[in-house]
Amino acid sequence: MKRHRWSKHRSGAAIGFAWAVLLLLLPGCTGQNPGSEPISKPHHVVRLEYWTPFSGGDNQFMTEMVERFNKEHPEIQVVQKNSRLDDYYSRLKTAVLSGNAPDVAIVHSTIMPQFVQNGYVEKLTMEAKDLGIDWKRFNPNILRSVLYEDDYYGVPLDTHALVMYYNKDWLSEAGVLDEAGRPIIQKGPDGFKSFLEQIRRRVPADIAPLAQPSTRIDSVWLWWSLYNQLTDGGQFYSEDGTEAVFNNPAALKALSFVNDLYKDKLIPSDINDAFQLFYDGKAAVLITGMWGTGAFEKAEGLQFGVVPVPTIYDYPAVWGDSHNLSIPKKRGMTEEKREAVLTFANWIVGHGDMWAEAGHVPSMTELTRSEMFNRLEYRSDYAATANYVAYWPRNAKQWSINERIISEFERMIYGYQTPEEALDAAVKKINADLRK
Asked: What is the CA radius of gyration of the chain?
């Protein structure tokens, strides 16, 4: 009996010791101060690689949005990798072709035709619907830029179109600022020229009436805007899409107006960085993308305003593009990751009022009516621009085709050819490219 009682006692001690060890190993029972809350961590984390081509303020705002998403969604962690736009798409295409694409990437609407035609991005229609992405909540004009034969290939984040910035001090000195602080511009091309001429007469000689670069794509954007204002949808290609046809009277009228602004020195010669010129208070007017708003707000001493690009001709129209969140084709893309990508995309576009701080117009119509968006200065002044953005036509080579136009317009600006010769030369070279 003694032996039995001793064995029972030893067995009870062993059980007690085992329970003590188990309790020590339980979460929250070791290494925590009394009263501290246990750290909750998800059992399984889906990690997403996200590629973006943003720079400056855009990169800063997107980084902040990703960090907030990650904080609110511990089960999904997004790693953002940013590249320069110059080589972004060549890197993205290489990654797709090698099977090493990111899980989600920004794709501009202009280059989307190439990505759709070549199968570089996935259809999102059914999966997005299953996860509660309601396409009816998006601005119809923006949404059309990702719709191909009833399928969506990206979740639109924004539109970023041309707007007109103006320096209130210089316009006031020139007498072309009204009591509400908005520019006084008479209708038509002559009215716009008269507006710039009055500025030139009354402000110091070193102030640009209108700042536009002498090189790069800015003059092309302005021409495309005015061409669409003349025709309510400027025709770029023939009906069958096999050849460029924009060497026509309406396109020539728009380009001649742009060329006159340079030739008459209303846009001073040899401007390299028009953006910086306006930022430094050395330009009265600047026509550029709405992405400038967030940067100009930080310019010390700059009193500026912003309005839509004036409707100089018959129809409201302006060049613009959109950033879209797309899923690149890749090996090993699981349903779990696809669902996580769409959850992320839905959250990002649903917080477009945060993205609007950079200056863009959110893709979701309801956000442009939100209190947060309308608390931001300037944005509501040009939000309606989203309704009449003139996107580039859909052609798989459009991104490179635009380089052809830039080259010919630069030769025109420097006086080596007339507007008519510039259009003819661009069309001839583009048609040669299309036949390759």
From this structure: 28
Residue 99's contacts (CB-CB under 8 Å, 6 or more residues apart) are: 330, 331
Looking up tokens 């409201």, which residue turns up?
316
Label the pairing between strands 46-52 and 104-108. parallel
308: nearest Cα among 282, 289, 323, 334? 289
Domains, the chain, with CATH or none: 46-157+322-384 (3.40.190.10), 161-320+397-435 (3.40.190.10)
pLDDT digits (tens, 9 = 90+) for 71-84: 999 999 999 999 99
CB 365 within 8 A of CB 174: no
- Rounded CA separation 380/261 (Å): 29
Kindly list the distances between the CA atom of residue 263 and the CA atoms of 17, 60, 267, 415, in Å, as whole numbers in the listed order.
93, 38, 8, 8
Per-residue pLDDT, 40? 53
Whole-prediction pTM value?
0.88
CA 205 – CA 59 distance, rounded (Å)? 36
Query: How many degrees, rounded to 5, is the angle at CA 226 between CA 220 and CA 228?
Result: 100
345-395 pLDDT per residue, tens: 999 999 999 999 999 999 999 999 999 999 999 999 999 999 999 999 999
> Scanning the structure block, which residue is given the tokens 């092309």?
220
Rounded CA separation 25/102 (Å) = 39
